[in-house]
Amino acid sequence: MEKLVITGGTPLKGEISIIGAKNSAIAIIPATLLCNGICTLHNVPNIIDVKLSCEILEQLGSKITWIDTNSLLIDNRNINKTHAPLDLTSKFRASYYLIGAMLSRCKEIEVGLPGGCNLGARPIDQHIKGFEALGAVANLSQGKINVKADKLVGTNIYMDIVSVGATINVLLSSIFAEGTTTIDNAAKEPHIVDVANFLNSLGADIRGAGTDLIKINGVKALKENVTYSIVPDQIETGTFMLAAIASKGDLTIKNCIPEHMDSLTSKIIEIGGNVEAYGDVIHVWSSNRPQKTVIKTLPYPGFPTDLQPQMGVVLSIADGTSIINESIWESRFQYTAELNKMGARITAQGKSAIFEGVSHLTGAPVYATDLRAGAALVIAGIIANGTTEIYNLKHIDRGYENIETKFSKLGAQIKRIVE
Ligand code: UD1
Predict the structure, then answer these.
(1) Which of 62, 99, 77, 102 lies closest to 225 in space, CA to CA?
(2) What per-residue confidence (pLDDT) applies to 316?
(3) CATH of domain 2-19+232-418
(4) What amino acid positions are annotated as catalytic residues?
(5) 22-229, superfamily in CATH?
(6) What ranges do the domains of the chain cover?
(7) Is the Cβ–Cβ distance between 103 and 174 less than 8 Å?
(8) What tens digit of pLDDT does each residue of 69-80 get?
(9) 124 CA: nearest ligand 1 atom
(10) How many angstroms does the Cα of residue 305 sit away from the middle of ligand 1?
(11) Ligand 1 near 126 CB (within 6 A)
């Protein structure tokens, strides 16, 4: 068993470079299935979820090579299966992107019902609604889903809920559909734009990604070769910004996109932190105790749910009482019980939590309950008095590349120990 051991109390200082976005990479890797040729991807995060995505594609017939630590060469000329391995696909959420991609490529796919972080009920009804509107038939039974179509025909699809996954999945399934498809009430997250840019660079005709109305004019085929670089990770950027504020540190965050961070930047300034952005660099620092605030998570460009736990750590030591309303996931406050073990005073009920700010946290053994909860506990360990041990690292490793190496370069006393 592995654990992270952190001796807290050092303000983080220095420069850090952000890697490609996890949520883009795990959509773009299955999206390469639309290319009957070779895709070279750069700025790929070297994390468990990416490796799982690659393993699943390999089982379908892809040949995948890491050409360096953060670059992949994916050869999809010999896809020869339409049934993805159930044990692998049911391990993580984004395996559902295989459905949209393989519907486009082979008109059929069978996968295990998607797993992933336990953040509450995670239905895929909007994905299925989109596939069926395009002419596919979906069957769910015994923990798997089979989707097939004789042909896919463009149509107007209105999403009842703003869903990142459904927007990308329906986009993937509509690229070769006859005529025009529109996705109304689409999600607008940066990785949706990234997937659309990737597909357009292969010759797809997608317009409006990043707005709530996406229009796809069906094309007959895509190019057989593309080189693409994945957008920097918005959530890793935000994790380091919040770590700087929580630790009263001073970080220069490179290779990021400051515009993607607007909702977080304005909250950081509101609670007394400092943020300056120039080009692809964010400078963030603080020397004061954070002030209280009220936050509601929302789809982009609102405050991201995936930064809610990291912000929760900051508010646990703020001056005054703060409130977070979580509007996306019903079980996203599991980390608050772990923070309370470290001396925080947080009362979570349903989709709201009240943070009575304490002067400091104290190190304790804690468990990462999901990916972003794990990142929040790392920040908590860095600012706590004494030693924190974090268990259940499999969650953190799903989405952060070398988290302990990155934080120790910034002055944190953090090491991974194999017991
Ligand atoms: C993605 C991110 C996840 C992030 C979330 C919200 C990936 C791999 N994961 O998850 O990190 O927390 O966006 O920014 O990119 N819903 C339905 N029916 C559906 C689909 C979704 O009711 O068919 C609901 C969900 O239960 C949730 C909300 O819509 O309450 C948003 O979910 P969605 O945007 O789809 O999240 P994911 O794509 O799963």
Answers:
(1) 77
(2) 98
(3) 3.65.10.10
(4) 117
(5) Enolpyruvate transferase domain (3.65.10.10)
(6) 2-19+232-418, 22-229
(7) no
(8) 999 999 999 999
(9) 23
(10) 10
(11) yes
